[in-house]
Write a structure and sequence with these properties.
With 123 residues, this protein is mainly α. It has one domain (3-122). It has helices at residues 3-31, 39-61, 69-89, 95-122. Helix 1 (3-31) packs antiparallel against helix 4. The longest helix has 29 residues, at 3-31. It is globular and about 45 Å long.
Length: 123
């Protein structure tokens, strides 16, 4: 994969995180226990997909230098468990999990927004 293709792929990953994922995390955190019940199984599936995708990425990057492994580990040990917990516990989820979703939403938008803007300015 050429460096231009990689940069283009990363730009779209950042864009998706800023617009879709960050918004979803904020929505879940803000709505809390009042969100529609279909969202809980949806979050369960999303959490499992995050575990699978980032678990695969960890395995495939094992031993590579500067692979961004920490990003995958953050998703496996922080993001996925929070989403899975809400998906499993449903509206019985503790308040702090929804607050944590708000923090994750702002973190996703800020982190990915920064790198998206940086990439635009570098080109």
């Amino acid at each position: 994969m050429s460096s231009n293709q990689l940069a283009s792929n990363l730009f779209y990953i950042h864009l998706i995180h800023v617009i879709i994922i960050g918004s979803l995390l904020l929505y879940v955190g803000i709505k809390g226990k009042t969100m529609p019940s279909f969202m809980y199984p949806t979050l369960l599936v999303i959490g499992l997909l995050i575990l699978a995708a980032h678990g695969y990425s960890v395995i495939s990057k094992y031993g590579q230098k500067n692979s961004g492994l920490w990003v995958n580990l953050f998703h496996i040990f922080i993001v996925a468990p929070v989403i899975l917990s809400i998906g499993i516990k449903g509206n019985q989820s503790p308040y702090y999990l929804f607050q944590f979703m708000i923090m994750l939403g702002f973190a996703a938008i800020g982190y990915h927004g920064y790198f998206m803007i940086k990439e635009l300015m570098d080109n």
